[in-house]
User: What shape does this take?
Amino acid sequence: MPHYRAPVEDTLFLLSDVLGVHGRANLAGFADATPDVMEAVLREGGKLADAVLAPVNQAGDREGCTRHADGRVTTPAGFKTAYDAYVGGGWLGLSMPEAFGGQGLPQVLNTAIQEFASGANLALSMYPGLTQGAAAALLVHGSQAQKDLYLPPMVEGRWTGTMNLTEPHCGTDLGLLRTRAAPNGDGSYAITGTKIFISAGEHDLSENIVHLVLARIEGAPAGTKGISLFLVPKVLVNEDGSLGARNGVSCGSIEHKMGIHGNSTCVMNYDAATGWLVGEANRGLNAMFVMMNEARLAVGVQGLGQSEAAYQNAVAYAKDRLQGRSLTGAKAPDKPADPIIVHPDVRRTLMQIRAFNEAARALVLWTALQSDILHRTEDAQERRTADDLMGLMTPVVKGVLTDRGFANAVEAQQLYGGHGYVEEWGMSQFVRDARIAMIYEGANGIQAMDLIGRKLPKDGGRAMMTFLGEVQTFLKDNGEDEAMAPFVRPLKTAADDLQQATMWLMQNAMGKPEHAGAGASDYMHLLGLVALGTMWGRIAKAALARKAEGGDTSRWDAKLVTGRFFMERTLPETALRLARIRSGADATMALDAEAF
Ligand SMILES: Cc1cc2nc3c(=O)[nH]c(=O)nc-3n(C[C@H](O)[C@H](O)[C@H](O)COP(=O)(O)OP(=O)(O)OC[C@H]3O[C@@H](n4cnc5c(N)ncnc54)[C@H](O)[C@@H]3O)c2cc1C
Assistant: This one.
């Protein structure tokens, strides 16, 4: 059976030494997050992931969810017990406001726990994950009455949440959606329509399910400007919070899919179901964006989680599996062959994944810290910068971490040879589970378009200038430090590539938007590489400082070697990305559709 061990030590190092979270006492909630509290939270969260969530991961994949004739959906054996342990420990409300029963701790801490949970059991982690997203949307756009009634049981995990956007004929292009909302005359609406692919749409883990549904109020304008957001509970809720009658929403079927079998993916039928408007009429997409942005970061974390889980298992296998002899002579002469970890090509694979994971973890925590700054600082300038950086990095975290997360799961599977292809070892599940993260929450091609079409030009390119400014400051501050040279030089080259790509697009894509569309994915990866390279620069600096303290330096030496590998073997990919972007759209678009 595959194993999982939450990367607690690495996360503690990143939070304290690389991100300096403890020095952020000016941010609301951070004063409570003392080093001791953070460590205790991460250690307990790690134990939960290792001992409760991971052990039901493979069985959940094999059994999957079942829809019964009466429309009920049951989750795999053991999921309910694991879910109860998760919400019973208060993990769902870790960074939710105390006013609604949460603990008000930093989002950066919650993000670390999200990585542990999704690495241990992606399918299970989605039930509380979606609930957090729905609660976040209600926090920002819900009325006080909606918050008071719905948030406490959601934060407690007694009720879960969903997001209902997709319909059979529309996924990316939500302007086409048809689900209707007719006013009932008492402030509520009758919601009618069909939603597909709704994660956690029906299940047996909670007493109630709070669906956030995009629909069009009768007479609303066509397109995205006529979409509103509604709260539609599975079971109607009385004013005192007790449960009333069943609402007109039901699960028509569940999908049989490639992965995340333990998470129910439902067709949801809304048959004049009673719903309440969340936020303003016709501004539903705006309200849903709170949930979508939250979810996009969480999905990026899922990519990292699967990459880490696959890596840990591949390391164990590579140390155990005996095949061939080392190129430099037998390393285990007493055995019939050496363990495959002696082979440079196996090492290359492991180093590639490891070097990505450690920087990706830093990047998601850094982005989560921007979210904390955005929501918790009193300083307007600091808030604006955090908003810019988070907006810019959200599609990158989603797109790059899930593309690479899947690729890494495949690479780790490869180290098992044929044993990776059979289900017994669990590597196939990591690959299958990781695949969805590239698709949902906006397919990765759409993330790239969001980056290049919306985030990049916004406010005259201010966010990108801020990001590049931070990279340049880092390069300048460390340019004279010889020990940092292996990090500073490659990062400078990569940042130059990013600058040139940005300039090329500014000069060429205005007149011909297809240049932007054809280069979008490369640009997203180019920015991702520079962001990950910057994280390695910061990690290296912190590791050098720890190494200088003396004692056993092996951990810091390993960090520095891993970082050097990234700088030498992964970061130069920026040149390839730049070359592709500069080639423009001509060859990409030259053939007529009929020629395909
Ligand atoms: C397991 C699973 C769980 C899901 N969970 C949820 C959920 O909880 N709630 C929910 O609402 N939805 C959910 N979805 C739906 C998911 O978000 C959509 O499938 C996804 O957004 C893509 O939409 P689509 O499938 O209609 O593909 P399409 O929109 O048809 O896109 C097909 C392809 O065309 C590309 N494309 C489309 N338009 C453009 C464009 N303008 N420019 C460039 N490329 C373009 C896309 O990138 C994609 O590769 C889930 C899906 C699955 C499979």
Remarks:
- The pocket of flavin-adenine dinucleotide is lined by residues 163-166, 171-172, 197-199, 257, 265, 436, 439-440, 442-443, 445-446, 449 (CB under 6 Å).
- Residues 52 and 587 are 52 Å apart (CA to CA).
- The longest helix spans residues 284-320.
- The chain has a mean pLDDT of 97.
